[in-house]
Structures
1.
Amino acid sequence: MEEALLKVSGVSLNFGGIRALTDVSFDVRKGEVFSIIGPNGAGKTSMLNCISGRYRPSAGTITFKGRDITRLKPNKRADLGIGRTFQNLALFGHMSVLDNIMVGRHHLLKNNFITGSIHWLTGARTEELENRREIEQIIDFLEIQHVRKATAGTLSYGLRKRVELARAVALKPDLILLDEPMAGMNLEEKEDMARYILDLNEEWGITVVMIEHDMGVVMDISNRVMVLDFGKKLAAGTPEEVLANEHVKRAYLGEVDEVPPGETQVA
């Protein structure tokens, strides 16, 4: 896991007079689970948006597989193998689970209006069957066979999270960006999601960049962790190194310096 799949160098992001990110640099190695943590408003989702192309950094560069993608549009980044889920679910609520997942395969389709009408000559039919076969594998993997024909908007929150993950996986990404994949879930749902993420990483070979507030999950499944605070990189390292960092304890975990005997802590 020494090869850098993603490299973020000196990225800053401004919204008018507001600085969301300031000179943030890090790399994500091929084959690892890399988590980004920090308080609300620390710039975590802004960073994912810069990587996925939703935002364009005010300064700095982002490279993926050795290619500068800083100015590429989101669909071009998807073509290169970057998938993502969102903090606020972005499913098509009126569509079926199967159709939502099929959307994730759209950019992989080679046929167009002309070739689609003469698929017996171009292999479009074979292509469609192969796409459906791979989607069925994803449905089986995420254990959502029982809702494959259900309307996405009628599902429970936990199941909708799984469907959104399925759509991101359908893109066949080398790197997947997960924005709070376990938010709003109960303990059992979190355990299932953690298992899916680990299996995607270990068995499917997908590198993971994840934002998550559940520190137990982060420390259990991450290879490395980066901490953001007020848009700046506060610390990075293994989960053990980050937990032991005094700046992290004060800024993120809420720990305070010990108060000398006879003195009181000012709130």
2.
Amino acid sequence: MEDKRFAVLIDSDNISSKYITCILDEMTKYGVITYKRIYGDWTSTQTSKWKNELLENSITPIQQFSNTVGKNATDSALIIDAMDILYTGNVEGFCIVSSDSDFTRLASRLRESGMEVIGMGEEKTPRSFRAACTVFTNLEILVDQDDEETGEETAYTNSVNQAAPQVGGQQPGEDPQTLRGIIDQRVIENDITAIINENRDKDKDTGLGEIGSRLVKKYSDFDVRNYGYSSLSKFLEEIDNFELRKANNAITVRIKDNKIPKEQLADYVIHLVKANGKAGIKVETLGHKIHDRYDHFKVKDYGYSTFLKFVQSIPQLEVRENRYKNKVVHIRG
């Protein structure tokens, strides 16, 4: 099977030249680069750092004069070229390198035409552009990865640590996932659990590749490197809820049997209801208390679609509506 052909189009107004090696290296994962173009006003001193990189990496500069102060003239040139390349039929995908949300509609339009769209940009890239791409990669992650391999610490990492108190009200030492604006790891864990349970209902094993593929389809910027891991398998191995099994060179993922015995849960639920006396306890309040005590409690693990159904399955309890139409749990009697 031949490698896919890609056009790499770079917005020099929004991307630093320090990323170019990382960009080209990352694209080797997806296919062969047939177009390498960068857009900017090459008469401006702001583009001087790019000029050496263009020669060394054989990137074609496209001149776009800034005719109006404050307007990003490179956007229209890049968009027009992208559509021209699309209609030539010479590529199967595009890599748009920019941190500008103005390319959101372009990414969507290219995907509507069946193109794979790889987006690359800095942390500041708006979610609208990230979501419009097939896959989106944070360039800072790629630079951090390269620097770690050479034993260096990036200036970016230092700047994030120093700026932590000002970013979204975060304080020093808080979760870097929050600072980077990436998908919370707990959300990813819940999605993986849902995928495994869905396959289990169909008597089907869940492969490592399927999990990776479905996560990227749902979150275009999902990348295990955002969480400090080099591979999806290592990422999953570190999560207590999952276990990996290898057989005949195929890796499957399962949910560990951390299930709390139903009898133990039922006893605790009854205890909470009794503690509230004749007033009973609202179903949602009861649910919160169960989750506070048992972090890994998932009602679907016991075959119920809702927590209310789980409560109703306990013979000693009954659920009634109060005058405010709230569902309240009482001791049956």
